[in-house]
Amino acid sequence: MKQILSPTLLLLIFLFLCTTASGQSSAPATAPSGPAAVSVQSSPPAPSTSGPSGPADIISVLQKAGDFTTFIGLLKSSQVDALINTQLKKSNQGFTVFAPTDTAFSGLKTGTLNSFSDEQKAALTKFHVIPSFLAISQFQTISNPIHTQAAGENSAEFPLNVIGNGTHVNITTGLVNTTVDSTVYSDGQLAVYEIPQVLLSQGILSPQAPAPALAPVPPNPKKASPLNALAPSSSTTVSVDSSDASGLPHYVQTVVSVGLAVLTAMSLSL
Fold it and tell me: Second label for 54, Cα 20 to 30 Å away, from 82, 99, 222, 250?
């Protein structure tokens, strides 16, 4: 009996274990506890909202372009660079600059630039600056001569004529005839054009002499005395005339008396 039941008991135990395992495997698996992972998708960086840094700096523009060392030195020594940068911040009128290259300055007669006074160097620098923004296309219709920073009230000494024909621009000053080689910089407020020659004018080579000092004012002349005050008085004239009149008969009487005395003495001696 023990031998018959033992295999049967083992079979029943086996079936029971299989049924239990099957029920556990059919139950849904529980997720492990803990924070759920969040999928993060990288987004492109937002565009910069910062505005422009401000008007261009004339020195920085020329330094970036290169080959303008001499002109940069003139801008700084004459303080024209400060004038341009300050006005660009204050107004929208703009500036146009004709920038001669270092090769252009080396083409001047030897010693020309060194012989210039500080006043002439300042006038030379300002003669290359127009106090308004001019695009290349505007040179076709602009009125000549163009007013420059050097002209002041004496524009006849600083004539600048600019004539445009498409992309070709010709510049004349009466002493120099040159062209615009290229556009160095243009932003609608500041235009810088490269030129192969230095612009000269009669006002630069022959600066006006300083006005002479005023002569000292002469003292007021003394008031002339009337002629009647200088003429002798009538009383004086009368007194002189009367003395002369009385003196003449007295003189005659003396002569007559002496003559009578001489005659009397002669008659007594006879």
Answer: 99
